[in-house]
């Protein structure tokens, strides 16, 4: 059981994640950068919404490593600006069976906000439009405590499109 979830619970989060906005540019096969904003109902009772901003570097290559060489949570996400309640969680991509990839995450910024998910979504989309940002994805997670599963859904949708040609 990963992250304290059963495989069925992880699959439910993966399947119910909504990818609202995807990068609007042609992704070149190989190493690329996927910035994202993931929104969901806050797991902190004093707030309405949890917003996670991050950037994932994806390299579609077959990499075989012994388990003791796998990176730790801190090596992947860093230790700055990470909610301490999340630091103890194990993070790993479920994997893309037909498309092995290596993923690394950087610049993780998690905030609990008082506005509703719908309001934060509208403000985020407006901000990206004003900045003429065509690279940042926007995701709605059904369970913000386990947002990495939703980020994986976002990555898999982009990687699958890239290789389906």
Description:
Helix content is 30%, strand content 25%. Helix 1 crosses helix 5. The chain has a five-stranded mixed β-sheet, with helices on both faces. The N and C termini lie far apart (34 Å). The chain is of the alpha+beta class. The chain has one domain. The chain has five helices and five strands; from the N terminus they run H-E-E-E-H-H-E-H-E-H. The radius of gyration is 16 Å and the shape is globular.
SSE layout:
Elements: H1 7-16, E1 18-21, E2 32-41, E3 49-59, H2 73-77, H3 84-87, E4 102-113, H4 117-130, E5 137-140, H5 147-163
Parallel strand pairs: 2-5
Antiparallel strand pairs: 1-5, 2-3, 3-4
Helix pairs in contact: 1-5
Concise account of the structure shown:
The protein has 165 residues and is of the alpha+beta class.
Radius of gyration: 16 Å
The protein's oligomeric status is: single chain
Mean pLDDT over the full residue set? 75
**Number of helices in the DSSP assignment:** 5
Instruction: Determine the fraction of residues in helical runs and give it as a percent range.
Output: 25-40%
**First-last Cα distance:** 34 Å
Taken in chain order, the helices and strands follow as HEEEHHEHEH
Specify the overall morphology: globular
Contiguous uncertain segments of 5+ residues: 61-66, 86-96
- In what order do the strands lie side by side in the largest sheet? 1-5-2-3-4
Taking the sheet with the most strands, its summary is: 5 strands, mixed
Structural class comes to alpha+beta
Total domain units: 1
